[in-house]
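How a chain folds remains the central question behind the approach discussed here. No coordinates are needed to read the tokens, only the vocabulary itself. For completeness, the protein is quoted in full, as a sequence line and a line of structure tokens:
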Amino acid sequence: MVGHESGPDMIKYIGSKRALLGQVTGAVRGVLPEGGLVCDLFSGTARVGHALKGQGFRVWSNDHNAYAHTLATAYVQADRERWAERAEAILSELRTVAPLAGWFTRTFCDEARFFHPDNGARIEAMRERIETMDLEPELRAIVLVSLMEAADRVDSTAGLQMAYMKAWAPRALKPLALRLPDLLPGVAAGPCRATQGDAVEIAEQVEADLVYLDPPYNQHSYLANYHVWESLVLWDRPETYGVANKRIDVKTRKSAFNSRPGIGPALQSVIERVKTPNLIVSFNDEGYLSREQLVAMLGARGHVQVIEIARPRYVGARIGIHNPKGEKVGAVGRLRNVEYLFVVTDQPVQLPVAA
């Protein structure tokens, strides 16, 4: 089956496997025939799940953040032939909604400058209208993803929602425009699905032909980095704090994977409890665990092969460290890192050579 090469127009995301999609899907294909069930336990943008669905695999995408679950529901669980026409009709209606400035505009455009207020009022009005619609979960997810991605295309950040540009980014001055997300047709082998759960808590419920693990690997919390998307999806108008107006629950919704002492036991627990003959673990040489530690941890499950991929670091690292006023306050560190794919199988398999 021919895969989806270009990939969908997804949100900017540190840790996204866009540049590594070929290696990740190639490793999966090296282990598993088309139609097999792959569980992506830390799905993030759902880019990997979307690519695997496009290549004919049954995919189960899971993430504990609401915005990530929404992305997976649209890009993995929802099938184009069922939802595309209805979703486009709803997007057409949303494009006509009159702007409305309220909590979202005040919080993320006036107090924190993530979006120009004109676009903030458009986002807010569309989101309010979605809230009044009685949409099926998959249709709701598709519409929310369209809005999230439209907002991402006109944001004024360097890619993280920890800070914003001192002056408006040129794209922030462009008008918000909704597009239908790049939905995929259903898979012949069976339905794909999305769940929202903590990886450690649901690991023992996971049974698949292959489990793909791409956990957070250092102190950076995805909830903190992308708190605006969480608030946009939940629409709960939370109490906020700091110059970035982060959700107050960023302080309390902590993951063991963002902790140096916590990540080892948490990942070990997941690895030991998932029921699968094949594991692929994505990690990075900036993570809290070393290559040697991961090989030792995975060795109990089977034969371990490691693919190394040298990559430029994320754009924020190349730009340097800036304070909320946009002033440079830190030095640029190293510009490249090494991405690892640990492939665990019963027997050695022929894997693609890393680019």
